[in-house]
Amino acid sequence: MLSAKSLFQEILDNDASFRLFCSIAASGESQGGWENGRIAALVPGSERALAPKIARHGADEDKHGRIFNALLRKRGLRPVDVPPDTDYTMLLERHGIGLAHERLRADQPLTVPDLVTYLAHSRVTEQRASEQMELLRKHFGDDPDVGRAVRMISHDEDNHLAYCHEELLRFARSGHGRTIQRTLRACALAEIRIYRDVSLAVMAHMGRILGWSKARAAVLAAGIHAVYAYERLGGWRRMVTLSMPERRNALGGPATPAPEFV
Fold it and tell me: Which of 43, 41, 47, 167 lies closest to 110, judged by CA?
């Protein structure tokens, strides 16, 4: 029976597919670490109190990249080049979601609207990351090989999502509410389309590695399109609502260390 657990198990059990999975994940996390690090360095003076939290966010993402690379080393594997059609982070940037890398490479301080854009983008993408890691934690949280890594990354992603909610609500109270909602909506609608395309690309690459039949590949593709249809019809709204999280000041302290195998 085809299920999320059986699909992930098949990918994890095969060295070549596991190598591609971890390489894609490590690349995306490392890119997120760089972006947050640059944003923290460019925070305007009026928002300097936010800089340590952004830096903590970046440190967490860097840690996640190291964890995925360490999982590869643990199996005697090395990362592979990430196929461009599976590069979720770069595709978002290329479609104008979040702050442009050209902007982040400049040494000009960001503005408050820039920070709102960054946080709205993060709120949408961290929703996706939190949901994906919750799924992995549900099925593989007790796995002897990847369980510890999955639990740690899942906890961090929940912290990141809580932080985005709290900071966006703070900016909304200071008069940026309409801009936040407009930006969140644009980000969410773009993200669900890019997530669909990336998911199709990842499954196509995995199918070639694992030798899936055309019928099985078609079933998986249909499932991805069904998820997109649900999200396009209204599921995207879960990515734009804001509520005060139970985890307050979730990024207010130092980053937790990576597991010992890193």
Answer: 43
